[in-house]
Write a structure and sequence with these properties.
Number of strands: 0
Radius of gyration: 22 Å
Number of helices: 5
Order of helices and strands: HHHHH
Shape: elongated
């Protein structure tokens, strides 16, 4: 029973941290900061950050799993990630998914005809 005041304080602090402080997204703040750093607008910074995120995801997955199908799936996951957080518009993801689907069916050994 001596720990009851401590439990009450921890519950009160936990409830205070659940209250939203701001409605802005962290990803929007990062995009705005990069836009200020490069001297461009938010769209250019979003494309730059999205490109970096997708390349990092592809490099990490490519080093861990050298199978081309896994790398293509990692690319799709990276594209979905940067689209969902708002760095790239939806039409960019649709265009790149179409390009990756064409690439997937044209790679030799993955169901394609070998690119001929």
């Amino acid at each position: 029973m001596t720990h009851l005041p401590h439990l009450f304080i921890f519950l009160l602090l936990g409830a205070v941290t659940l209250v939203p402080v701001a409605s802005a997204s962290v990803f929007d703040d990062v995009r705005s900061a990069v836009a200020d750093a490069i001297g461009g607008d938010d769209e250019a910074a979003g494309y730059l950050l999205g490109l970096v995120a997708v390349v990092v995801i592809l490099l990490v997955i490519g080093l861990l799993f050298p199978d081309p199908r896994v790398v293509l799936i990692a690319g799709l996951v990276g594209l979905a990630f940067v689209t969902l957080i708002g760095w790239w518009p939806t039409w960019t993801m649709i265009l790149l998914v179409i390009g990756l689907a064409v690439l997937l069916f044209r790679l030799p050994g993955l169901g394609g005809d070998g690119g001929t």
